[in-house]
From TrEMBL:
It comes from the Bacteria. InterPro entries: MTH1187/YkoF-like (IPR029756), Thiamine_BP (IPR002767). It comes from Saccharopolyspora oryzae. Signal peptide: none annotated. Coiled coil: none annotated. This is Thiamine-binding protein.
């Protein structure tokens, strides 16, 4: 089963370099063999369930350890009809 996850980490730090917790999330996903779409307002990633769910658990732990005080996460089964609206 393929999943798509979208998440943001806070606090936002405005213009300039992304905050350490956002970079840590991206790097955690890359270490799991995934390639996230890393943007200024959040990160999205698609992967198989067996790879993505453990990687997301590591992301949550990592970002909390690097200064995040909020994580907003949405996980969707990729390819569902809701995605085609």
């Amino acid at each position: 089963m393929m999943l798509r996850a979208e998440f943001t980490t806070e606090p936002f730090e405005g213009e300039g370099e992304p905050p350490a917790h956002a970079v840590a999330a991206r790097d955690c996903l890359r270490a799991a063999g995934l390639e996230p779409d890393f943007g200024p307002l959040g990160t999205s990633i698609t992967g198989d369930r067996e790879t993505l769910l453990p990687a997301l658990a590591r992301v949550v732990e990592t970002v909390l350890n690097t200064g995040a005080n909020r994580i907003t996460l949405q996980v969707t089964v990729d390819g569902t009809e809701d995605d085609q609206v």
